[in-house]
Amino acid sequence: MKSVPATKKPKKRSVRSRYRIIRLLLRITAFGAAFGVFWCAYLLYLINGYDAPKTIPKADAAIILGAALWSDKPSPGLKERLDYGLGLYKQRKVAHFILSGGHDHNGSTLSEAEGMRDYLTAKGVPVEAMVLEEDSRSTYENLLFSKPLARKHGWNHLFIVTNDFHAPRALDIAQYLDYPGDTMALGFKSQVLSISYNYSREVLAFTKWKLDELLLRMGVQLPNSF
């Protein structure tokens, strides 16, 4: 007699294995989505929870973080930062500025720092009161390259001037770079920039900074991308 071939039963096991894998992937996806929502909510809490100091002490210098130039003139958003810094100067809260920003390759022939200098000079700030940092192309580099300039001039008490939504990340970077403990980020609410767009963009930028910070702490040297 011919032997009857054994029936194949692995199909049930194969189906069960696929179901297990699918369930595992769904759980991982759900966990990732939940973490993403939590993280975004946490960053929005930090950004929205930023409060400008009610009383502003005197400082040695204010670092004004650069933004785009339009045809070699400060864009409306950058004008707001410069006008805020100018107010500090007129109130005698600071006597010096570090103007931080390189070439942004948008058609301007000047660096952001040069455009800022020209604007403030036209407003009556003497050239000798301003130090230019023209190499940076990111918030991280703004603060990385401004720190030795402040040290060179003996400026230990510093303000960082930027928008309110940008201030928490700027201060976080300054703390990573071991700025003096009393360094203050002075942010203000913009009257010309889109709130929804810039807050959403800042959540992404802050997330990227925290990932880059982790890599930096591990000794990985990163290209300019902050």
Topology as a string of helices (H) and strands (E): HEEEHEHEHEHEH
Which stretches are low in confidence, meaning pLDDT under 50 for 5 or more residues running? none
Radius of gyration: 25 Å
Gap between N and C termini: 78 Å
How much strand content do the residues show? 5-15%
Please tally the β strands and state the result: 7
Q: Roughly how much helix do the residues carry, as a percent range?
A: 40-55%
Q: What is the global morphology?
A: elongated
Instruction: Report mean pLDDT, rounded to a whole number.
Output: 89
Summed up, the helix count is 6
Widest beta sheet: strand line-up: 5-4-1-6-7
Sheet with most strands? 5 strands, parallel
Q: How does the helix and strand content classify structurally?
A: alpha/beta
Keywords:
226 residues; alpha/beta; 5-stranded parallel beta sheet; 6 helices; 50% helix
Descriptive notes:
The chain has 226 residues and is α/β, with parallel strands linked by helices. Helix content is 50%, strand content 12%. The chain contains six helices and seven strands, in the order αβββαβαβαβαβα. The protein has helices spanning 10-48, 76-90, 112-122, 139-152, 167-176, 195-217; strands at residues 61-65, 69-70, 73-74, 97-100, 130-133, 158-163, 184-188. Strand 4, helix 3 (112-122) and strand 5 form a beta-alpha-beta unit. Helix 1 (10-48) packs across helix 6. The longest helix is centred in the N-terminal third of the chain and has 39 residues, at 10-48. The termini are far apart. The mean pLDDT is 89.
